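Researcher: Structure prediction, please.
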Amino acid sequence: MLKRLSGDINEEVDNHNLMLDRMGNDMDSSRGVLSGTMDRFKMVFETKSSRRMFTLVASFVVLFLIIYYLTR
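Model: Predicted structure follows.
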């Protein structure tokens, strides 16, 4: 019984390790995409006037809120 229990624990640990590895890879890829997006935002903010920048940021916030309330 103890041998079977330790085998089950080993299998569960292996499954969780695989899941964590996949999650880590997904986080790394999303971090790369987010970094590229932030670089583009920095370029836009540096080249545009402050009024256009405010309009862009306000538009994204409103769009985010609309999507949030529609999916909730």
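Model: The chain has a mean pLDDT of 85.
Researcher: Thanks, that helps.
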